[in-house]
């Protein structure tokens, strides 16, 4: 009797586990994660709605429902990365007062972001194909420069320089750091702190006063 019961149980078809349904918010976050990874890996033009939906395990209409298309998804990804990067830079600058330490922390903030959010930085340094206020490498530099412009203006005023030139110098400094970061993203050598020290060496001392073995002073 027991043998027959056991045999009956063994021959019953196993129930297929039901797929866990995501909430609208969870699905949106999943699509953002998938899109971020694909845009970083293949670029905007190399990524299709079909690939995004396939990797997310959903149909194409689901992507359109949440973002209106690939452009909308890309725009949200870029916005999030810009917000993350600018928040790091602003936080770093707010904790320093000496101008050299400000420069050191700004450089380290960008390099930290590149190290911990590599996919995000790869997306930001590509020119955005979307007519979007925060898309593209040029906008990245401009938005980051706006965070340090007022600090430079205060330093210029204290030293008797024309504050009208502060925006231009802010673009120079941030552009130098961002382009160096783009290069470091691929080579990852020397170490992050050494890269920041050499950046500060050039920005602070100029070519005529370069230190042979620069190091960070505000750590």
N-to-C CA distance: 77 Å
Q: Estimate the global geometry from the Cα principal axes.
A: elongated
Largest sheet: none
Percentage of residues in DSSP E strands: under 5%
CATH architecture descriptor text of the domain at 77-209:
Orthogonal Bundle
Approximate helicity band: 55-70%
CATH superfamily of the domain at 77-209: Tetracycline Repressor, domain 2
Mean pLDDT: 84
What is the CATH T-level topology of the domain at 77-209? Tetracycline Repressor, domain 2
* pLDDT < 50 stretches: 130-134
**Counted beta strands:** 0
Structure description:
With 219 residues, the chain is an all-alpha fold. It has a domain at 77-209: Orthogonal Bundle (Tetracycline Repressor, domain 2). Helix content is 70%, strand content 0%. The protein contains 10 helices and no strands. The protein is elongated. The model is unreliable at 130-134 (pLDDT under 50). GO terms for molecular function: DNA-binding transcription factor activity; transcription cis-regulatory region binding. It comes from Jiangella ureilytica. Residues 48-67 bind DNA.
Brief write-up:
The chain is mainly α. It contains ten helices and no strands. It has a domain at 77-209: Orthogonal Bundle (Tetracycline Repressor, domain 2), CATH 1.10.357.
Topology:
Layout: H1 2-11, H2 24-42, H3 49-56, H4 60-67, H5 70-94, H6 99-116, H7 118-124, H8 137-158, H9 166-187, H10 192-205
Helix pairs in contact: 2-3, 2-5, 2-7, 4-5, 5-6, 5-7, 5-8, 6-7, 6-9, 6-10, 8-9, 9-10
